[in-house]
Amino acid sequence: MDDKVKVSLRIFRFNPETDKKSHFDKFELTVDKNERVLDMLEHIKGYFDGSLSFRRSCAHGVCGSDAMRINGRNYLACKALIKDVGTNITVEPISGLPVIKDLIVDMEPFFEHYRSVLPYFINDDPEPLQERLQSPEQRERFDDTTKCILCACCTTSCPSFWANDKYVGPAAIVAAHRFIYDSRDQAAAERLKILNEQFGVYRCHTIFNCTVACPREIQITEAIGDVKKAIATGKIE
């Protein structure tokens, strides 16, 4: 069976050194339907236009660096198969962050929000002789939110973030959740105070875009609900 298909690919282009405004370049390719959008971008950069700029690293859905909008939805380009996204494809940078060039955005605002929630282990007790132990049940409570790869697919699919980029965003809340519910950590109250501020967790309006966009299938909206409940009740359950 012939798995080759003809693909029409429109790519967002913007070079601040030469362009006054953005535009789209169109390419026609014949590819295997099981190839990925990243494969096509690599082919275009290698054989048609070496100036095409995009981020990528592992190419296996682990690093999260090749997040982009594909036919209006956030994906990792290395996980988006042609057979799933169709043969008329439009590729754009993720929304809500400044475009540096082509498909590359400035991730610093995203990471600034991430850092604001203290996304690291805090425990001032004396170090134990071995490790700080917890039960499998305690670990399971926050296991889902340990899967985040900081691709920004969730935050940049959120209408609340598009409306006001001061909103801390889903990814930062996921990072906070991972430590708030870790039985070994001692800074849950401080993180909840941060997330109870004006541009914190209550800017979420439960639209579920973040959960749909997550390439790791994290239940982001549920995690945000956990944090809202903890703030409202003063209890971490």
Question: What can you see in these coordinates?
Answer:
The protein has 237 residues and is of the alpha+beta class. It has 2 domains: 4-105, Roll (Ubiquitin-like (UB roll)), CATH 3.10.20; 108-233, Fumarate Reductase Iron-sulfur Protein, Chain B, domain 2. The chain is 30% helix and 16% strand. The protein has helices at residues 37-47, 82-85, 108-116, 136-140, 159-163, 170-180, 188-195, 209-213, 220-233, and strands at 4-13, 23-32, 67-70, 73-76, 88-92, 99-101, 104-105. A 5-stranded mixed sheet has the order 2-1-5-3-4, covered by helices on one side. A two-stranded antiparallel sheet has the order 6-7. A hairpin with a 2-residue loop joins strand 3 (67-70) and strand 4 (73-76). 34% of the residues are buried. The mean pLDDT is 96.
Feature tags:
single chain, 237 residues, alpha+beta, Ubiquitin-like (UB roll), Fumarate Reductase Iron-sulfur Protein, Chain B, domain 2, 2 domains, five-stranded mixed beta sheet, two-stranded antiparallel sheet, 16% strand, elongated
Topology overview:
Blueprint: E1 4-13, E2 23-32, H1 37-47, E3 67-70, E4 73-76, H2 82-85, E5 88-92, E6 99-101, E7 104-105, H3 108-116, H4 136-140, H5 159-163, H6 170-180, H7 188-195, H8 209-213, H9 220-233
Parallel strand pairs: 1-5
Antiparallel strand pairs: 1-2, 3-4, 3-5, 6-7
Helix pairs in contact: 3-6, 6-7, 6-9
Name the helicity range: 25-40%
Structural class: alpha+beta
CATH topology of the largest domain: Fumarate Reductase Iron-sulfur Protein, Chain B, domain 2
- The proportion of residues in beta strands is 15-25%
**What would the average pLDDT be, to the nearest integer?**
96
Q: Rg to the nearest angstrom?
A: 20 Å
User: Helical element count?
Assistant: 9
How far apart, in Å, are the first and last alpha carbons? Answer: 54 Å
CATH class of the largest domain, named Mainly Alpha
Large-scale geometry = elongated
- The count of domains is 2
CATH superfamily of the largest domain: Alpha-helical ferredoxin
Unreliable spans are none
Secondary-structure element pattern, one letter each: EEHEEHEEEHHHHHHH
User: Biggest sheet, open or closed, and with what strands and sense?
Assistant: 5 strands, mixed
CATH architecture of the largest domain: Orthogonal Bundle
Number of strands: 7
Strand order of the largest sheet: 2-1-5-3-4
